[in-house]
């Protein structure tokens, strides 16, 4: 979805039994936090890492690369791009879904809307080079990246995966290029092949994307197989994310024909996987398929099911019908690629609460990437507020219990450093690493990484340091950062108050004045080495 009027299909869902229950996952093997180690694959309805541990992707969409800007929106704000990723990670979003268009991959493509003062390290970079920097930094935080081919061009979404200007051959060749480009980098875990294929035209003269109709020019299931297998031929480690359609026939019902016998139920664009059980996507590499439906609230379109007297008790049966059955029957994992709301109405608040319950809690729940980080999504708004820095706490509070925060390093780029053989660290103590990311006339940007080297957790944690006179804080992230005189205090955020023994926290900031290394860094009052 992106900044457009929603065109939902006519809905005539014959709901399953209203007694459908909240979804629970099959029993899982021992699972870890974060996003696991190495590349991911599937096992029944689970996503697992290279060791077989269950992984739940709890992510967010950061759009813009599919628009005329050809890069992430919000790079025009006063919050540096690393600061925005730091906030996402600190809130618990362990995966980033990145929409793009084929326009952004063309030779000579240029990124626009970048604040050179705030993001001097992005000056002159191509859209792909900016994406490379985001991938690299996200990887250091233990986050994963899903690439989403959102549109053939920046002009807008399309019902089919190709247009006259961007044929299927270009779609596939661009995917193969990306698969090769990121080969060996397990931060990038897979391809969401095409965003929201949907119906177009009226039956029986349908022209949109169908599922299982057998027409190679319109059957999205067959196209997903062609693209997925082409990608896996050059990058067999990637997951292939396949969205649904809106109407399985690929056409909207003709309400003027007075014939309701063939009228079908239609769901959200990309959200209808009701035929995937009968017509599954067949990939040449086993255990790589993840189905990725989209699901929205009334702020996007007022579907008939929101008016059911039984609402919201009717919703689990609807979700079961369109895509939940794939998970419940252990056919394949579900990763909700988009779902969101302005949260302006109580109907939507209830919808979001019930949808999250349906996905299940803990590592065994269904994966998802919320739409969106961006506050400028026209019909949902974002997790970020309009300043691209502060957070919409009402939305975050509903999502928070279901988020599994990334673990820095995360095992995605190699094994963790071995533990010193000199014996356990004494209780109390810390180690500090300072990195200056940028500097410009009159200001600079940096990050203070502090590791708890003591033998016990600290709750709540607090980091302090001093700066020379004349250096003043502009903003900070990953903590509540304030300044009094020459002393800066970074207090633990309410959602992450504990710093475990051996764990680290990274506090980012921008400041005015001469670039200066923080001095006398302390964790909970204890000086760091």
From TrEMBL:
> What is this protein's record name?
Endoglucanase
Q: Where is the composition biased (Low complexity)?
A: 414-429
Q: Which Pfam families match?
A: CBM_2, Cellulase
Q: Write out the catalysed reaction.
A: Endohydrolysis of (1->4)-beta-D-glucosidic linkages in cellulose, lichenin and cereal beta-D-glucans
Name the Enzyme Commission number(s) assigned to this protein. 3.2.1.4
Species: Actinoplanes cyaneus
Q: Secretion signal: which residues? A: 1-30
The biological process GO terms on file are: cellulose catabolic process
CBM2 domain segment(s): 423-529
Supply the alphabetized keyword list: Carbohydrate metabolism, Cellulose degradation, Glycosidase, Hydrolase, Polysaccharide degradation, Signal
One GO MF term attached to the UniProt entry: cellulase activity
Query: From which domain of life does this come?
Result: Bacteria
Family from the record: Belongs to the glycosyl hydrolase 5 (cellulase A) family.
